[in-house]
Amino acid sequence: MNILDRFEQSFERLMEGSIGRLFRSPIQPAEIGRKLERAMVANQVVSVDATLVPNDYRVAMHPEDMVLFADYVTALCRQMETWLAELASERRFTLIDRIRVQISGVNTVPRRAIQVTAAIVDRPNFGRPEQDAVQRTEVYRVIRETTGVPPLRVRFLSGPLAGSDVTIRKTTTTVGRALDNDIVVESGDVSRHHAKLEYSNAQLRVTDLDSTNGTRVNGKAVRTHPLTLGDEITFGAQKVKVLAFDSNGR
Length: 250
Fold this sequence. Notes:
This protein is an alpha+beta fold and 250 residues long. It is 30% helix and 28% strand.
């Protein structure tokens, strides 16, 4: 298996499961990998005893494409950094500093397109926490400007998706067992089309869609109910918590 195939497989594992399946982007991982590789090779600098290659990479895509990666952007950047480091080592290139990859949403980039710029940069005081904070801030900006919805998320506390966070990236987000929902919960106690989360007039609200086992907010059965941060919603027996999505990743 070549190094590009390994990168693509690691990306696909990242996107596995119900959430990844529904929010899969039309941009394929191999496209990103090939453009990063070209940027590395095209910007190499040959010196007497070494071949220097870029360590700072900026990946730009249309904001509506980037929104589909919202739950994965930071982890994806780390995977791309690991892959580029392996590529540099395999080809005996020299890096002056740790590889960094950032993804941005840029309106001038066409849909389904990827633009990559690369540079040799020495930033010894710019570590992983600062880089992750910059990336989360960019995700926050893109979600708000693209959808009009403040970056909110729900965290599954039980069931097959326990521990998973899902970003609310649409004004109406449907929840249910059927594959045409925005959030698919593959559990028998969840109806095919169980409920919907709606953002309107600066308020997030949950509405039950005549589900068999009902929807509850903080333990109380509801038909429709406004939500605030910290509320717990139960779809059948599957419990989620409403959280903020801020630049600190809390």
